[in-house]
Amino acid sequence: MKLLTLSLLALATAASVAAQKVKVIDGDIKALEGQASVNTKFDYAGLTIGKKNIRDADYIATRKAELNDKKPGSGDTWAKAWVDDRQSRFEPRFDETFAKLSGMSVDNKGKYTLIVKLLNLEPGAAVGFKTSAELDAEVWVVESANPGNVVAKISITNAPGNMIGAGMDTGIRIQESYATAARGLARLIKKA
Fold this sequence. Notes:
This protein is an alpha/beta fold. It has one domain. Helix content is 44%, strand content 30%. The protein contains four helices and ten strands. Strands 1, 2, 3, 4, 5, 6, 9 and 10 form an eight-stranded mixed β-sheet that branches. The chain has a two-stranded antiparallel ribbon with strand order 7-8. A hairpin with a 4-residue loop joins strand 3 (48-49) and strand 4. Helix 2 (56-70) crosses helix 3 (74-102) and helix 3 packs parallel to helix 4 (170-191). The longest helix is centred in the middle third of the chain and has 29 residues, at 74-102.
């Protein structure tokens, strides 16, 4: 049973990495060669949710109202977690995965900053059937001292979050989407 579980996990990880596409869409990432560290910033201004591309703020308002109608206060709790999880769970998971695979530390000392602009997030589902979370983002590599100087832009599409063991916790699925995106980005940079 243990071997079967490990095999399924390995297949899910391989499939998730294969499904995403990470490519340089502008500039050159060679500037990151030899860097010991980078900074990261996350930008949610253009974030849409789901296949219908609902603006994040509209999604939060609608989902919050739905949940509060079912159970007063539950929507408020959900909305707070939806936003708070970004800094407490998702961004640290991205940074940790990126640092581990790129060989660069993520801190406030890097000559370059990776601005991760979240574009679309599919949270996935675990009601009746399970679907993975998935995210699309654009990463801008900028000089930390001069953020207007964009060195490169990188597209990340279809970065899936592993649904194995996630159960009802949407946060785990989304967290793993961030990790998958970081894996793909780190691999791209190492190949440069």
